[in-house]
Design goal:
This protein is α+β, with helices and mostly antiparallel strands. Helix content is 23%, strand content 30%. It has two helices and four strands. A four-stranded antiparallel sheet has the order 3-2-1-4. A hairpin with a 2-residue loop joins strand 1 and strand 2 (23-28). It is globular. The two termini are 17 Å apart.
């Protein structure tokens, strides 16, 4: 199982994939997919490519969902 530290460390990047039903879909450089709810975005700027460390909150939530047996978003 991949750890949060492995996904966000050492200058790792995330890449925007698409928007669907109120969620921004991103993928890490390692291929890990996660979502960012638009309602949670506030006045933030979401780039097509950004530092994975800035998305740690959302990556952690997806890791927790995956470990509970939930499907990846």
């Amino acid at each position: 199982m991949t750890t949060l530290k492995e996904l966000v460390g050492k200058d790792k990047k995330v890449h925007f994939q698409f928007y669907r039903k109120g969620e921004l879909f991103y993928k890490t450089s390692d291929g890990f997919e996660f979502t960012v709810p638009v309602d949670d975005a506030g006045d933030g700027v979401f780039l097509s490519e950004d530092k994975a460390m800035l998305f740690m909150r959302y990556i952690r939530k997806q890791l927790d969902r995956n470990s509970e047996g939930g499907q990846p978003s």
